[in-house]
Amino acid sequence: xxxxxxxxxxxxxxxxxxxxxxxxxxxxxxxxxxxxxxxxxxxxxxxxxxxxxxxxxxxxxxxxxxxxxxxxxxxxxxxxxxxxxxxxxxxxxxxxxxxxxxxxxxxxxxxxxxxxxxxxxxxxxxxxxxxxxxxxxxxxxxxxxxxxxxxxxxxxxxxxxxxxxxxxxxxxxxxxxxxxxxxxxxxxxxxxxxxxxxxxxxxxxxxxxxxxxxxxxxxxxxxxxxxxxxx
Length: 231
Description:
Blueprint: H1 13-24, H2 47-62, H3 69-76, H4 83-88, E1 92-95, E2 100-103, E3 112-116, H5 123-129, H6 139-146, H7 157-163, H8 165-176, E4 181-184, E5 191-194, H9 198-210, E6 214-218
Antiparallel strand pairs: 1-2, 3-5, 3-6, 4-5
């Protein structure tokens, strides 16, 4: 497994999943895994979780385990609340602890600007900062029904922004300068800016490039189930 200063091998989800599967299924041989990161770490973009999911899929094949879909999901739920989603891919609704995955119609959105300041936020930090509320929010259902990005929200956002005001400043700047909506991505620190057109996204991208913040103009992809995720 290729190792870099930014991640300890034994703390990496790929390593944890591989060791778990090796012991669980009494596999007598090992595997060499090379990790190449194409997105920033601790950015809330699901890189670690998608890496873990692909590890489950790959080792099931390499070690001739022939795991069922339910078997793969059973392993995934031991290591994180969104790994199960990446076993499925595409547009899907995650419920419960994130392990109940229901496919939904593809949500096609163009001109999505991702902006990450020069720091990360660990999942542990984000969840420790969240304010638990019993209030029900049905905006996610409205988003699924209408594809209206104004319904997008992230319940981790308030707590993370209090600890890291720069994230809130990015959200406010994007919304004041053309983005239809801006929210925290996952557990942070990346901000998602939904832009009405490419011109707006490019303008905002140029602004943050000058600040030397990582940014990328993206779009949702139709029918990505079972593809190889580049994370």
